[in-house]
Specification:
With 332 residues, this protein is mainly α. It has 2 domains: 211 residues, HUPs (Rossmann fold), CATH 3.40.50.620; 77 residues, Tyrosyl-Transfer RNA Synthetase, CATH 1.10.240.10. It contains 14 helices and 5 strands. The radius of gyration is 22 Å and the shape is elongated.
Length: 332
């Protein structure tokens, strides 16, 4: 008897809190592209705008910010013929499922999540129910499609554990068949912050290079990376950032400049300007493709709407199953 091998379903989302940057591209999106091109996976990628409103945001620019995430996804190489690409708020089943899930997880559990405590410190005057329920909505995002895998960093593990806890409770209490979704990392590159501390982050001003930055903008940002007055000796955070970027984008230049650094003859402005040049060279195809997409808003909107339709087809089936098993009436 032949065993049918089912595709593993993958879900990932990006908050509309700013433009995608070099770290997102090498650390995440390039991995997403590999997944969509692998026939073993069925992928859903979304701009998760409902998550954006859990912390202070600009409601006047939210739609534009959300569309920019989709533009960046498409320009980077995500393919609507190989993956579902859409916007979270166009799939209302996410929020309906989140409410149903909230009946099996306690307030106490949510309040003691380290990520919630961090956000309370960051936004002490904006501690809303939406912020408290962020992990429940994330669980709904993932389990609406009975996703097996979520590509995410270690910082998201507390939220993934909530997702698995909800799945177990729903399965044990109501006989649902949710998978215990696992976090995994794609073979992406870690891109350090321009400050020399931590990694590039949309939420940390001055730490990143946006995929849409011009050569002048990139050069200005790279020149601001902290270095030493003279070359040689221990490689500090900012200098490590420069060499990491160069090694990733132009290994031959990295070797040459490293030799000069060790010899004490390196001029940091020369190194920085070369780093800016190779970054811009890497981003030019992306920027050209993005410019083309900006000139074709009808195509982008079609991708979003068709993606939403596909996503709703899957998510609505899950919601119907959950409501039925919970004893609720299922509508037409």
């Amino acid at each position: 008897m032949t065993t049918v091998k089912h595709k593993k379903r993958v879900f990932s989302g990006a908050r509309a809190t700013g433009r995608l940057h070099l770290g997102n591209y090498f650390g995440g999106v390039k991995g997403y592209i590999e997944l969509q091109n692998n026939p073993e996976y069925e992928c859903l990628y979304m701009a998760v705008d409902m998550h954006t409103i859990t912390t202070p945001y600009n409601h006047k620019t939210l739609r534009e910010d959300t569309n920019n995430i989709i533009l960046d996804f498409l320009a980077a190489g995500l393919d609507p013929n190989k993956a579902v690409i859409t916007i979270q708020s166009l799939v209302p089943e996410h929020t309906e499922l989140a409410f149903l899930f909230s009946s099996v997880i306690s307030v106490f559990r949510m309040q003691h999540l380290p990520t919630f405590k961090d956000k309370v410190k960051q936004y002490p005057s904006h501690v809303t129910m939406a912020l408290l329920n962020y992990p429940v909505l994330m669980a709904a995002d993932i389990l609406a499609y009975k996703s097996d895998l979520v590509p995410a960093g270690l910082d998201q593990e507390p939220h993934l554990e909530v997702t698995r806890e909800i799945a177990r409770k729903m399965n044990d209490t109501y006989g649902t068949d949710f998978p215990l979704t696992q976090r995994f990392t794609t073979q992406g590159q870690y891109i350090p912050s321009l400050s020399g501390e931590g990694k590039m982050s949309k939420s940390v001003s001055g730490s990143y290079i946006a995929l849409t930055d011009s050569l002048d903008e990139i050069r200005k940002k790279v020149r601001s990376i902290p270095t030493a007055t003279t070359a040689g000796g221990q490689i500090t955070g900012g200098i490590h950032t420069l060499f990491t970027l160069l090694k990733l984008l132009s290994p031959q230049d990295e070797y040459q400049f490293l030799q000069e650094y060790q010899a004490g003859t390196l001029k940091f402005v020369t190194l920085k300007d070369r780093v800016a040049e190779v970054i811009f060279e890497e981003l030019q195809p992306f920027q050209c493709r993005r410019s083309e997409l900006e000139q074709n808003p009808e195509y982008v909107e079609r991708v979003i709407q068709q993606g939403a339709e596909k996503a709703r087809g899957l998510a609505s089936q899950t919601v119907r199953e959950v409501k039925d098993k919970m004893g609720l009436r299922v509508g037409f």
